[in-house]
TrEMBL record:
<keyword id="KW-0406">Ion transport</keyword>
<dbReference type="InterPro" id="IPR023011">
    <property type="entry name" value="ATP_synth_F0_asu_AS"/>
</dbReference>
<keyword id="KW-0375">Hydrogen ion transport</keyword>
<comment type="subunit">
    <text>Component of the ATP synthase complex composed at least of ATP5F1A/subunit alpha, ATP5F1B/subunit beta, ATP5MC1/subunit c (homooctomer), MT-ATP6/subunit a, MT-ATP8/subunit 8, ATP5ME/subunit e, ATP5MF/subunit f, ATP5MG/subunit g, ATP5MK/subunit k, ATP5MJ/subunit j, ATP5F1C/subunit gamma, ATP5F1D/subunit delta, ATP5F1E/subunit epsilon, ATP5PF/subunit F6, ATP5PB/subunit b, ATP5PD/subunit d, ATP5PO/subunit OSCP.</text>
</comment>
<protein>
    <recommendedName>
        <fullName>ATP synthase subunit a</fullName>
    </recommendedName>
</protein>
<dbReference type="InterPro" id="IPR000568">
    <property type="entry name" value="ATP_synth_F0_asu"/>
</dbReference>
<feature type="transmembrane region" description="Helical">
    <location>
        <begin position="69"/>
        <end position="89"/>
    </location>
</feature>
<keyword id="KW-0496">Mitochondrion</keyword>
<dbReference type="GO" id="GO:0005743">
    <property type="term" value="C:mitochondrial inner membrane"/>
</dbReference>
<feature type="transmembrane region" description="Helical">
    <location>
        <begin position="170"/>
        <end position="189"/>
    </location>
</feature>
<keyword id="KW-0138">CF(0)</keyword>
<feature type="transmembrane region" description="Helical">
    <location>
        <begin position="101"/>
        <end position="118"/>
    </location>
</feature>
<dbReference type="Pfam" id="PF00119">
    <property type="entry name" value="ATP-synt_A"/>
</dbReference>
<keyword id="KW-0812">Transmembrane</keyword>
<dbReference type="GO" id="GO:0046933">
    <property type="term" value="F:proton-transporting ATP synthase activity, rotational mechanism"/>
</dbReference>
<keyword id="KW-1133">Transmembrane helix</keyword>
<keyword id="KW-0813">Transport</keyword>
Length: 227
């Protein structure tokens, strides 16, 4: 029984072919394409307003040189929100519960921010490894600690997104199983459990959006340090 709870995190296959690519393509098909009219419909207007507000708030503390990342960060935000939200639907698969996918997104983007800092301002980038005014005996230890913390950043990005989504999906499945089992035995308790499941589903919708925002926000903070 315990093993079946984790079956939802296995990559689905059809005739031996993994359907991970279909899960990646589907979110982009749901977004409307721009129309050749001066006045757009409400959905396009709402989408444009959301992207403009998000991009302006995200890039507000970043220098002009970092504004080239606006398209990358906005696209990543929409992509993660779509994957997280679609994964809450029944009989669907959530690719962002896979640590390999999250690390594949986190490591290249984090490495790009580090390389940009080393190219544009190598002194300031290396200066983050040693705080100003550090006592001389502590310099080697602090350099090692800061270097380790620097390389842990992409791991923290991937593990945070994976752990939050995986825990939420497992909790929803556990509560749904409990409600199904208790329905013929104790209907009143089953109804209360179903109400808890409904509230948890609403919470998971918020978590799906918040975790995507946190992922992109931390990337923007890493970019701010190196621009």
């Amino acid at each position: 029984m315990m093993a079946s709870f984790f079956d939802q995190f296995m990559s689905p296959t059809f005739l031996g072919v993994p359907l991970m690519a279909l899960a990646f393509v589907l979110p982009w098909l749901l977004f409307p394409s721009p129309a050749p009219r001066w006045l757009n419909n409400r959905l396009l207007t709402l989408q444009g307003w959301f992207i403009n507000r998000f991009t302006s708030q995200l890039l507000l503390p970043i220098n002009i040189g970092g504004h080239n990342w606006a398209l990358i960060l906005a696209s990543l935000m929409i992509f993660l929100i779509s994957l997280n939200m679609l994964g809450l639907l029944p009989y669907t698969f959530t690719p962002t519960t896979q640590l390999s996918l999250n690390m594949a997104l986190a490591v290249p983007l984090w490495l790009a921010t580090v390389l940009i800092g080393l190219r544009n301002q190598p002194t300031a980038a290396l200066g983050h490894l040693l705080p100003e005014g550090t006592p001389v005996p502590l310099i080697p230890i602090l350099i090692i600690i800061e270097t380790i913390s620097l390389f842990i950043r992409p791991l923290a990005l991937g593990v945070r997104l994976t752990a939050n989504l995986t825990a939420g999906h497992l909790l929803m499945q556990l509560i749904a199983t409990a409600a199904f089992v208790l329905l013929p035995l104790m209907p009143a308790v089953a109804v209360m459990t179903s109400i808890v499941l409904l509230l948890l589903t609403i919470l998971e919708v918020a978590v799906a959006m918040i975790q995507a925002y946190v992922f992109v926000l931390l990337l923007s903070l890493y970019l701010q340090e190196n621009v």
